[in-house]
Specification:
single chain; 133 residues; mainly alpha; Arc Repressor Mutant, subunit A; 3-stranded antiparallel sheet; 11% strand; elongated
Length: 133
Amino acid sequence: MPRASTTSDTFNAVAEPRRREILTYLAEAERPVGDIVAALGLEQPSVSKHLRVLRDVGLVRVRCQGRQKLYRTNAEAIRPLHEWAATFERYWQHQLSRVKERAEAMVRQTSPALKCPKPNPDPSQPDPSQKEK
């Protein structure tokens, strides 16, 4: 079965790590291509191609300000990605909760052996845990 084009599918578009970097960078603020190039250390033609793919699938919007194009993320288009990833977040939260419960149960089972004597609150009085022999 042939793979879907990266220009027609949001999930394939964000499969590319550099596109995810660009989306993350644009999440902070609207930026021109030059800022993206400088911040991420990528070549300008590469950034332009990635922006075109992101724009074609609707993840990025562009606005012209004079001769400059400013890019920003389209949060509404990212929602399906977020909702899909949230499915796995719930799974991992459940798994982590189970790990935490098991660890706490193990601590409760072994804690009597690990208990240290309580410090004597009044140093002028003899420590009741220290019996004379």
